[in-house]
Amino acid sequence: MLRSSQNLAERLRTVRVRMAAAAASAGRNVDSVTLLAVSKGQPAEQIRAAAAAGLTDVGESYLGEAVGKMAGLGDLPLTWHFIGRLQANKTRPIAERFAWVHGLDRLKIAERLSAQRPYHAPALNVCIQVSLAGEATKGGVRPAEVPDLAAAVAALPRLALRGLMCIPPEETDPERQRGWFAQLRALRDSLAAGGQRLDTLSMGMSGDFEAAIREGATLVRIGTAIFGPRPEGPPPGTIGPS
Ligand SMILES: *Cc1c(COP(=O)(O)O)cnc(C)c1O
């Protein structure tokens, strides 16, 4: 355990150094980029170790798994982000337990989240997921649909529309990576020109976060580069294939 938490601290240090270098090369302050630690597939103890190493924001993709981990980590001051696919019949626990939702791509889901957000909680922060390449499996709306969805989501009382999120196709060439992220940034800028100002660009994962930071990411979602490879098999707390 000691050994593995030392590894985590070292990996985290490396990620922070790489983030700072990418920000500096773009003339940006690295403090303007939130590091979201993606802990799906990792046990709760790893999240505890990450918090001890200074991480404050945690991202989970599977509701059952996330709820199980939250139960044992209630003593930590963590901000929980839901980054998985959203299903209409599972919105209530997300509206009740998370501070952020990154994968919003349907108005119906947004309406449910707004209606189900507890009155005593602050508005739920949301990002609209944009499908830049049109890959069906990843979710997201096409760029042309974003302005209308953004206007409708912004009008919901218990949601705070914060920005745009993307999961572009995997690329190893940094220039090609930047091309995708530049598209999301341009979309953000065109919304701003239309009066819809958004402060968040949720983009960049372990394999491409430096390119994302160069193109203006304000939040990077990083899993394996912090925690190491995800353990094999279904994530804890989820039901197997039916
Ligand atoms: C798993 C996941 C990540 C993190 O992926 P890594 O390659 O492990 O950094 C980021 N965003 C989303 C939406 C994910 O599902």
Folded structure, characterized:
The protein has 242 residues and is α/β, with parallel strands linked by helices. It has one domain (2-226): Alanine racemase (TIM Barrel, Alpha-Beta Barrel). It is built from 9 helices and 8 strands. It has an 8-stranded parallel β-sheet. Helix 4 (91-97) packs across helix 5 (107-116). It is globular. The site of pyridoxal-5'-phosphate has 13 residues, from strand 8 and helix 9.
Spell out the blueprint of helices and strands:
Layout: H1 2-25, E1 34-38, H2 44-52, E2 57-60, H3 63-72, E3 79-82, H4 91-97, E4 100-104, H5 107-116, E5 124-129, H6 146-154, E6 159-165, H7 174-193, E7 200-202, H8 209-214, E8 219-222, H9 224-227
Parallel strand pairs: 1-2, 1-8, 2-3, 3-4, 4-5, 5-6, 6-7
Bound molecules: pyridoxal-5'-phosphate.
Pyridoxal-5'-phosphate binds next to strand 8 and helix 9.
